[in-house]
Amino acid sequence: MILDGRDPASVQRAAEALRAGQLLGLPTETVYGLAADADQDAAVARIFTAKGRPSDHPLIVHVADVQGVDHYAQAVPDFARALLQRFWPGPLTLILPRRPEVAAAAAGGQDSVGLRCPAHPVAHALLMAARALGVHGVAAPSANQFGRVSPTTAAHVQDEFGEELLILDGGACEVGIESTIVDCTRGVPVLLRPGRITREQIEAVSGQRLRDKDELAAPSPRASGTLEAHYAPRAKVRLMEGTALQAALEVLGQDFDGGKATIAVYARSMLRVPSAKLLYRRMPDDAEAAAQQLFAALRDFDAQGVNLIWVEQPPQSTDWEGVRDRLRRAAAS
Ligand code: TXA
Ligand code: MG
Q1: Nearest CA to ligand 1 atom 12
Q2: To 5 degrees, how large is the angle CA 315–CA 151–CA 219?
Q3: In 119-187, beta strands by DSSP E
Q4: What is the pLDDT of residues 260-297, one digit of tens each?
Q5: Cα(278)–Cα(248) distance, integer angstroms
Q6: Distance of CA 316 from the midpoint of ligand 1 (Å)
Q7: Per residue in 38-71, pLDDT tens?
C-alpha cells in the first residue's frame, strides 16, 4: 500500500509499523530502501527473506543524525568524523567498527556496521518519528529483489514486493544510484562503491588518498553492491564506445525488422539509427542527470519487452564513476 510521505499521519503510521517489527518501503535521495528496525533481529531477518538476499550480506543502517553514530559505532576515526560532518545528511555510507551489542543481524555478522544519514525529507521525518518511539536506526538495503535494478519510485518498489508492503511515497529519487560507500575500519579510507559523492570530494575532506578495495592485502567484507554481476535488468546489456555502437547500428541496417529481438539504444551521442524498429533513448550529457535516470531507464526498457540494450560507454571522468560502475555490472550478468 502506497502512502503519501508528505503526510505526517502517514509518517507516524510508518514509524509505528517499524516499531512493531514490520517492513517499510522508504524513499531516500539515492534509491528506495526496504526498511526495518535495525535493532530487531527478527524484523531484519524479514528483509533478507523478502529480498532473497544471503543473510551474511550486511545492510546499511540509516540514522536521523550524527547522534545515531554513537549508538551503533565505536572508535570513529578522525577522517570518518570529517566525512560525516561534511557530507551528512547525504548520499555517503561509512563502514565503522560496530558496538558488539547492537545490530548484529543487520551487520550480517560482521564486526563493522554501515551507517548513513539520508537527506530526503521524508526519510528524515520517518527517522525522527521512529526515534521518538525508541527506534535508533533503520536497516535498509535497496528495495529490489537480490541482484536486480534498484527502485527509484514508489511504483518500482510495489512492482518488486507487491501490494502488501507499506510504502511511503517520496517522489522520484533525486540521486538515482546508491550511496558512495567508504570503509573507515582499515586506518585509511577505502572506496567500496562509487556514487554521487566523488573520489576528489572524499580525498579533499578526509585529507587522505582514497584506496581502492583491491589495493589492500586483506579482502573487503562481503558486499553485494560490490559483486560483479548486480543491478541487472532482464534484458542483456552491452556497453560500447560511441563509434562501435554506430558501426553496429549500420550493420543492422535499414532492413532490420527486429523479428524476435527488440533492441534499445541508450546513448549520449547523436547516433544515426537506421531502423524505426530500434528504440532510441538519449542518455543525458550530465553525469548527475544520467545517474538520476539510469535505473528507471533500464526498468522502462524491460517493461517495453526489450531483449538487448546497447549502451554507449560513459566518459572516463570521475563524476561518471558511479554510472560506469552500475553499467559495467549490469553488463556483466
Ligand atoms: O543509497 C544507498 O546506500 C541505499 C539506500 C536505500 O540508502 N541502500 C543500499 O543498500 O544501497 P544495499 O544493501 O543495497 O547496499 C548496501 C551495501 C552492500 O553492498 C553491503 O554489503 C554494504 O553496503 N555494507 C553494508 N554494511 C557493510 C559492512 N559492515 N561492511 C561492508 N559492507 C557493508
Ligand atoms: Mg542493493
Answers
A1: 141
A2: 65
A3: 138-139, 166-169, 180-183
A4: 778 999 999 999 988 888 899 999 999 999 999 999 99
A5: 12
A6: 25
A7: 999 999 999 999 999 888 899 999 999 999 999 9
Q: Does ligand 1 lie within 6 Å of residue 185's CB atom?
A: no
Amino acid at 17: A
Beta bridge partners of 116: 62
> Could you tell me the three cell numbers for 306?
526489450
Nearest listed ligand to the Cα of residue 106: 1
Q: Which residues contact 298 (CB under 8 A, 6 or more apart)?
A: 149, 233, 235, 237, 309, 330
Which residue carries 556514487 as its cell? 195
Burial of 186 (0-12, 13-18, 19+ CB in 10 A): middle
| Amino acid in position 138 | V
**Ligand 1 contacts CB of residue 31 (under 6 A):** yes
Give the three cell numbers for residue 182: 567508504
Q: Partners of 229 in the beta sheet?
A: none
Instruction: Return the SS3 of 52.
Output: coil
Instruction: Give yes or no for a contact between 276 and 181, defined as CB atoms under 8 angstroms apart.
Output: no
Which residues on neighbouring strands pair with residue 267, listed in sequence order?
282
What pTM value is reported for the model?
Answer: 0.95
Identify the burial level of 302 via C-beta atoms within 10 angstroms of its C-beta, where 0-12 means exposed, 13-18 middle and 19 or more buried. middle
CA of 246 relative to ligand 2 center, distance in Å: 32
> Is 139 within 8 Å of 158 (Cβ atoms)?
no
Distances (CA, A) of 245 to 164, 277, 321: 43, 16, 21
